[in-house]
Structure formats: C-alpha cells, structure tokens
Amino acid sequence: MRFCLCVLVMICPLSSCPAQAGAWLREKGAGFASISFAATYFLDTEQKTYLEYGVRDDLTLGADIAIIGDQFGNAGGYATLFLRRPIGGTDSPHRWAYELGVGAAWAPEIVTPYIKTGLSWGRGIQIRETYGWVTVDASVSWDLMYGAHVTKVDSTVGLTFNDTFAGMLQLYTANVQNENFATIAPSLLISPSKDDSA
After folding, report:
1. Does residue 83 sit within a domain?
2. Based on the structure, what is the number of domains in the chain?
3. Which listed residue, of 23, 85, 101, 132, carries a Cα 20 to 30 Å from 55's Cα?
C-alpha cells in the first residue's frame, strides 16, 4: 500500500493536462493525442499518453494513461477513462464542463481502482494582438480500496504567438492524505507547419 500511495503522490506533480482541455470539448469527429515524458531532479519519471475524441459536440470521451518510476526502481502507473460534458451554453465567453471517470492505479503486487470527478472553467483572452486562454481544472479522485483521495486544482494560462508557437504556464496543486504539493510548469508548444502544396 505504501508504494501505491507513492504512485498517487507522483501523479500530482508530474501529471499535466493538454493545452485547452478541461472546459473546451472536442467537436464531433475530432480527436486529440498527446504522448509525453517527464523527469524530476530526483530521477522520478513519467511516460504519459492522453487521448480525447468528440463523440458529439456535447460529449468528449478520453483516456489518460501513465507509467511512473521512482529513483529507487519502483514502477507503477495509472489509467483513467473519462467523459466530459458542458455545463450551460457554449456561446458564452466563460466555458464550464464537468468530468466523470473510472480508473486504477497500480504498483508491484497491488491494483487500486478509483473514481474521478472534475469541474473545469475556461475562457479565451486577448493581450494586444495575441490570443490565448485561461483554465482552472478542479478534480477529486477517490480510491475505492483504501479510502484515500487526491484533490487537485490545476491552472493554465496560454498564449498563441503564431501558427507554429504557443507558450503556456501551468500551476498544479494537490492534496494527498493531508499533504500538499505544488508544481509550476512553463511550456513551449510547437505545432508542425502544414504543407499545403502536397
């Protein structure tokens, strides 16, 4: 159980949400995929795959899967399947959505199922000629085996500089078993240019 709690703790500082997830849903038939790798100074690592697909304009399904390792050679991970739906209209500058998910965290010799609930707010912003977004994502994951829970509040500010580059600053905060964690993560997003000549 101790390493399973360590997996829950590692999920908090390393986990990241894709740039405009949360309050924004995928359009019907549109998808999104992200594969990432993260490492800390203490050699804790995370390999992550994040998928979203718009089943309808008001329903996005997704998966969040990670393999986590710590400096002592322990390995574990988690997988969450979720759905996201809007709250209220989508024509307002303020976007709201809720999320429901089921999943499991695993470590050597133990698998811990959990359920997850989330609430997201977001809105587009403009600074002079530059457009961007602000989001706040709050969630609680309940461990169904031991009664532990993880409470997270993640905030993101992003700016799109041009068709290729965007910048993002994220603040992750979490509470696990009465312990608090916080991580600041600046990012540069690079979108490959599309060759229209083909």
Report:
1. yes
2. 1
3. 132
